[in-house]
């Protein structure tokens, strides 16, 4: 139970709400980093589902079952107060099923088609995402609702997801630029003026995309918008609490694979690598 002290009692340790963040791998880390930067006092748990990776090539049924099992595991082990599904694929496919099944609040991430449509002058937008996200009916509806007068050019970048997950921490800038080159060439030839990064893994390559696409194409993601929403909702849990906030930022994986790079990611983001969480 969080303390309800409302005076400026600095001797009281307040247990802030626990935010759990799930992605198939490293893609959700920029979101949690944004949240942690703006609210360093807090309890944050990041689960990289390295055993379930990649999500983007799974069927909808498989993915709903897998993500539900991961959330059950988080619930029984940590009982989080809120969950951020920091994965476009899992959000577009499984979020409504998760909300029906679990009682804690969820925030999801979806491709930032709406802000891109607002900014596009040529009414032509690029969307790079996983194979699952580019063909999902959720994405069709998103485009129909917020970009109906734009042409949206879709590109499935599953190889690039693998690149980020397995090689990002050991690559040079030249290798990263080389990796994004085919997609950049494609979108430039299509004449878009906005590129939506509709897979969270690609946010790690945002600078590389921007540098190859040049100033005429904006690279858009949902980190700030989603980050602000989560911060607003976290503040509601602790309204009036002014004691010393307990702090923790731990990263777990669901398999040994890639754990050395998670230790590197953890160091980079000011977190601790807490090891493998064994989930059924
Ligand atoms: N990072 C995820 C997304 O935003 C999925 C990557 C994958 O596992 O295929 O869609």
Note the topology.
Blueprint: E1 13-14, E2 18-23, H1 29-38, E3 43-48, H2 60-78, E4 82-85, H3 88-101, E5 106-108, H4 113-119, E6 124-129, H5 131-135, H6 137-146, E7 151-156, H7 158-167, H8 173-190, E8 194-197, H9 206-213, E9 218-220, H10 223-237, E10 244-245, E11 248-253, H11 259-269, E12 272-276
Parallel strand pairs: 1-10, 2-3, 2-4, 3-11, 4-5, 6-7, 6-8, 8-9, 11-12
Helix pairs in contact: 1-10, 2-3, 8-9
Bound molecules: D-glutamic acid.
Residues 23-24, 27, 53-56, 87-89, 130, 133, 161, 199-201 line the site of D-glutamic acid (DGL).
| pLDDT < 50 stretches | 1-8
The portion of residues assigned to helices is: 40-55%
End-to-end separation in angstroms reads 28 Å
Q: Tell me the radius of gyration.
A: 19 Å
Features:
12 strands; six-stranded parallel beta sheet; disordered N terminus; globular; 11 helices; 280 residues; binds D-glutamic acid; alpha/beta
Describe the structure.
The protein has 11 helices and 12 strands. By secondary structure, the chain is α/β, with parallel strands linked by helices. The strands form 3 sheets. Strands 5-4-2-3-11-12 form a 6-stranded parallel beta sheet, with helices on both faces. It has a 4-stranded parallel beta sheet with strand order 7-6-8-9, sandwiched between helices. It has a two-stranded parallel ribbon with strand order 1-10. Strand 4 (82-85), helix 3 and strand 5 (106-108) form a beta-alpha-beta unit.
């Amino acid at each position: 139970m969080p303390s309800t002290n409302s005076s400026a009692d600095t001797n009281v340790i307040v247990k802030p709400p626990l935010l759990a963040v799930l992605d198939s791998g490293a893609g959700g880390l920029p979101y949690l980093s944004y949240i942690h930067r703006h609210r360093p006092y807090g309890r944050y748990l990041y689960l990289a589902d390295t055993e379930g990776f990649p999500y983007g090539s799974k069927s909808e049924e498989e993915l709903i079952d897998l993500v539900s099992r991961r959330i059950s595991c988080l619930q029984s082990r940590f009982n989080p107060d809120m969950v951020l599904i920091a994965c476009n694929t899992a959000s577009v496919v499984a979020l409504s099923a998760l909300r029906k099944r679990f009682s804690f609040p969820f925030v999801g991430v979806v491709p930032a088609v709406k802000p891109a449509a607002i900014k596009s002058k040529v009414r032509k937008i690029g969307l790079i995402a996983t194979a699952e996200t580019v063909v999902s009916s959720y994405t069709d509806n998103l485009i129909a609702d917020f970009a109906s007068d734009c042409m949206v050019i879709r590109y499935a970048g599953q190889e690039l997801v693998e690149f980020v997950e397995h090689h990002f921490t050991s690559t040079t800038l030249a290798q990263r630029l080389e990796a994004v080159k085919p997609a950049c060439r494609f979108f430039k030839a299509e004449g878009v003026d906005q590129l939506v990064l509709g897979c969270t893994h690609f946010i790690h390559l945002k600078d590389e995309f921007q540098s190859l696409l040049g100033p005429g194409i904006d690279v858009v993601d949902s980190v700030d918008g989603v980050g602000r929403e989560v911060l607003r909702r976290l503040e509601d849990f602790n309204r009036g609490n002014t004691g010393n906030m307990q702090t923790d930022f731990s990263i777990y994986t669901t398999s040994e694979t890639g754990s050395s790079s998670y230790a590197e990611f953890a160091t980079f983001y000011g977190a601790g690598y807490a090891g493998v969480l064994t989930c059924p």
